[in-house]
Structure formats: structure tokens, C-alpha cells
Amino acid sequence: MSLIRYQNPEWTMWPTLDRLSSLRNDLDSLFELPLLGSFDRAGQLFSGWSPALDAYQNNDNVVVVAELPGMKKEEIEISLHDGMLTIAGERKQEATNGNGEKAERTERYVGKFRRSITLPVRVDSSKVNATYRDGILTVTLAKAEEAKPKQIQVNAS
């Protein structure tokens, strides 16, 4: 008799579920677009160029981190309006690599993008700081005083 090590069965469904999750994210993004807004924003949903971003918060700040590789800080626009943070810009396509060589294959996304997120709390618009380094944009937004957690003392009677 020989012993055979147990092997987990391979789930062939996982790649399919990953594609379904991606489709759901695309559909969720579609329904977040304003109905009467510009139609070119709806086209961006399927163009493939939408930078990834993360949002965090602590007691004092909301921090948004976006991946914008290959862009210059002058090409990035940041705006804050009615509790919505918008990051927009355009990454231009390079026809050559600088040495006059024509591209044989291009896979990097180019074109205009616009990402808007609703902030989870009120922020102080006068205390917003943005830094851009190594393709990572970090926007730090100070919470408004009324949005910060407060410690309340209990008095004994």
C-alpha cells in the first residue's frame, strides 16, 4: 500500500467568480454616475483608465491615496465640493520612447480620467494637503471639528 498526500481539489469556478466581481464593480460605478451628467464620463467607465484609490480615516483626518504612475503633478486636478473629493487628469500617449523608436505594443492606459468619492465625514476645506511622490498621490483632509469624536465625562450625582 502506498500513501498519497492529500491535495485540495482545484476550484475551476474561482476565475469566473473573479470576473463576476469585476463586472459588479463596473455596474456599481455606472449607477454612481449622475443621470444628467456628461455622457463622456459614462464612456470612461468602459475605457479601462480609472486609477485605483484607497480611503482611510483616523480621529483627525481622512486620507485618500491614489495610484497615478507616469503622471506629472501639473497634470493632476483635485477639487472638493459638497463633501465630494474629485481627482481628475489626463495621461497622454507617447508615440515614441524618446529615441525615435515607434511602439510595437502598448498596454498602459492613457487618456482622461475622473474619480469622485463621497467623503465619510465633514472636512475642513481650508486644511487640505496633497502630496505626489513616486506615482502615488496622497490627499489628507482634516476632519471638521464637529465630525471629530469627543470624549464625554460622566458626572456622578
Could you characterize what this model shows?
- The chain has 157 residues and is an alpha+beta fold.
- The protein has 2 domains: 15-47; 49-94 and 110-147, Immunoglobulin-like, CATH 2.60.40.790.
- The chain is 18% helix and 34% strand.
- It contains 2 helices and 7 strands; from the N terminus they run H-H-E-E-E-E-E-E-E.
- A 4-stranded antiparallel beta sheet has the order 1-2-7-6, with no helix packed on it. Strands 3-4-5 form a 3-stranded antiparallel beta sheet, with no helix packed on it.
- Strand 3 and strand 4 form a beta hairpin.
- It is extended, with a radius of gyration of 22 Å.
- The termini are far apart.
- Mean pLDDT is 78; it is low at 36-45.
Overview in brief:
The chain is of the alpha+beta class and 157 residues long. 18% of the residues lie in helices and 34% in strands. It has two domains: 15-47; 49-94 and 110-147, Immunoglobulin-like, CATH 2.60.40.
Largest beta-sheet characterization: 4 strands, antiparallel
The class by helix and strand makeup works out as alpha+beta
- Ends apart, CA distance between termini: 79 Å
Strands, total number: 7
- Approximate helicity band: 10-25%
- How many domain regions? 2
Low-confidence stretches: 36-45
CATH architecture of the largest domain: Sandwich
Order of helices and strands: HHEEEEEEE
* The first-level CATH class name of the largest domain: Mainly Beta
Q: How much of the polypeptide forms β-strand, as a percent range?
A: 25-35%
Which strand order spans the largest sheet, edge to edge or round the barrel? 1-2-7-6
The CATH topology of the largest domain is: Immunoglobulin-like
What general outline do the C-alpha atoms trace?
A: extended
